[in-house]
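Quick illustration for those who missed Monday's session on complexes.
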Amino acid sequence: MSADKANTKGRAEENISATQPGWALPSEKPHCSGEACLGAARQEEFGKPAPCPPEVPPLKPSANHTVCVQVSAVGLGIVLPVQTPNAAEIWKSDYVKMPFANHCRQTRTVCFVRHVEVIRWLVIKAALNKDRFESSKHLENAIKEYNQKYAHLWRFSGLHQHFDQLPDSERQYLLGTLLPGMAKLALQLPEQCSKPIPLLKQRRAHAITMSQEQIACLLANAFFCTFPHRNSTQPNSEYHSFPDINFSRLFANFSQRMSEKLKTIFCYFSMVTENMPTGLVTFQRCCLNDSVDWRRSPCKLTQLRVSSEGRIEEEEQGELQVDFASPMVGGGVLGSGLVQEEIRFLINPELIVARLFTEKLADNECLVITGAQRYSEYGGYSDSYRWLRCHNDETPRDSWLRRCTEIVAIDALNFRNPMDQYKICYLERELNKAYCGFSTADRVILARHKPAVATGNWGCGAFKGDAKLKALIQIMAAAQAQRDVVYFTFGDTALMRSIKEMHQFLQGSNVTVGRLYDVLEKYSRKALGVSMGRDLYEFIRSNVACPKGRI
Ligand code: APR
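Prediction with adenosine-5-diphosphoribose bound:
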């Protein structure tokens, strides 16, 4: 065993003893005990965690921050929508095109012969304004009333099968209570959302703050597929670079996944129609203005806690929680996808509304969402995902009335050829993407605190990345952003040990981010020159101590 390894092993042993069961502070529920958790055991070893609620600057609109509620009222704890006169006259390409816009028209056939053009919102109101829906077919027909162009294309067999397999009492609750309540919520759109909602387009660093009630109203419209111009899948269509928002795809084919998704979504709507939350949520698109000179970074590694148990969303309040995103935020949440991002968007459904206004993320961009509330508890993953019950989120709110839950959507590269991920150009892309998500330098809204990043095998599932490499990339990006890291290996205890031991070795060797980048660059050349026989971490151990250029 090389000297380095013996040395590391010794340190690893020593560190594990520091994390025996019971290390968690009495007030903290231990994420894990003993062997399942390695690293900085106590919060103070992490450096001061952000207070929750964190201090935030006073809420006020600006050139790059659209606030959809009356700011003065928020100070009094009251949430009132901003009222914009003649909102129905607004129809601009830089703003969300609202279903109630007068520009939105459709042809109605009168007495079988005459075709009359009417304002589409009137058709929507007539179709949805019901005390009850007789069946899911009745719901299908209502949705098709104002989506005639797609009436022959859209299928609802998944929705019907979901309703058919429900116990009668649940079906009657949906048809007689929940769906009419959701329709009523959707029809409040002109009153709730008269302030134009800007599109968060690429290269446009901008924030939107809106109320949970406004989000619920927008999501109810998405459920009933009322958003215009959002259904075409043509590559050159107006919103081809935006995620879809209308729920029509979700209704098409029945599967256990689709059924569990609907249960999760109905749980959200039942909670908000029965007891509307009164807080705000902020969505901010951040663009990395200056990419980092990784080769010359003097930053030292920050603290790391690795756990093979637990999930990011169960992390302590106040951490920056990573969404393993698609560049089209939300990924397959309205389709068949059901891994980390889709699950997060289902249990915190206010995240889904980001699909309405967030254009595809570029390589140097991320989306930060502050305040998204959790409404469901779940078990399983992917095919075994099951909605369990509604969740009462008691996370404290900050002075903007937002839950202290900060989520950052960063999309890793999807490697069709896993060998590509070792190319320095892709390594650098992933470093910049993670740094964009973790840094506060390019935030639209200033952040005074830098709590730890709660992350895991980012880009290592659907996107087929190497977890050991991705862990290092995130550790380097967090160091550059001066944030500690809480890393969940999602049950992989061997990976937990490897990452922790590598981190201890690097910290013990006083390695800078720049030095580590240099070694990765050398590895990149060797990896691509020879077979990938040499383990990445073994290569780093053998070379990090070599003088620069001597590898
Ligand atoms: N907490 C911690 N770790 C998790 C969690 C969780 N809640 N859920 C999953 N993981 C771990 C698992 O080990 C998983 O294999 O993260 C790994 C990566 O998860 P993926 O969702 O597959 O992430 P990624 O590889 O980045 O693929 C992203 O999948 O969900 C879609 O829209 C998303 O298109 C995007 C793609």
